[in-house]
Write a structure and sequence with these properties.
By secondary structure, this protein is of the alpha+beta class. It contains three helices and five strands, in the order E-E-H-H-E-H-E-E.
Length: 118
C-alpha cells in the first residue's frame, strides 16, 4: 500500500523522560504522521466517510501524547502507533517523534517507526 496521507509537526507537551526533573516538567515533542490507507475509495466517492479524517487523527494524536506519561520515547511512539491503528481505518502508519533539545549538542533527537495493522 503506497497511498498515504501525512500530517507534519503536531506539537505536544507531555511528561517524557527518565531523569527526576523530566518526571516533573512537561516537555515539547513533535509528531509527524504518515497514514497509509486506500485513498482511491475517497477519490472515487469524494466522501469523507470512506477515508480518514485527518483533523480527527491529528487531534487524537495530540490528546494521546499530552495525556501520556512515559520514560522512553520508544514506548510512547509504539503505543501511539497501536492506538492509531485501532482508532482509524489504516493499513499502516509511520510515526516520527522528535524531542527537540533532549541532547545538548544536537538540535533534535527522536525515533521513527512503521507499523502495520496486519
Amino acid at each position: 500500500m503506497q497511498d498515504h496521507l501525512f500530517i507534519e509537526s503536531i506539537e505536544c507537551e507531555t511528561i517524557i523522560g527518565c531523569l527526576a526533573w523530566e518526571r516533573q516538567v512537561k516537555q515539547k515533542v513533535v509528531v509527524d504522521l504518515t497514514l497509509f490507507m486506500d485513498i482511491a475509495s475517497v477519490a472515487k466517492s469524494d466522501d469523507l466517510n470512506t477515508g480518514v479524517d485527518y483533523v480527527a487523527a491529528a487531534e487524537w494524536t495530540k490528546a494521546f501524547v499530552e495525556k501520556s506519561d512515559y520514560k522512553y520515547i520508544e514506548t510512547l511512539v509504539h503505543d501511539l502507533a497501536d492506538g492509531l491503528l485501532a482508532a482509524f481505518t489504516l493499513h499502516s502508519v509511520k510515526i516520527r517523534l522528535n524531542k527537540p533539545g533532549a541532547v545538548a549538542v544536537a538540535k533534535n533527537v527522536g525515533v521513527e517507526i512503521y507499523r502495520s495493522s496486519s
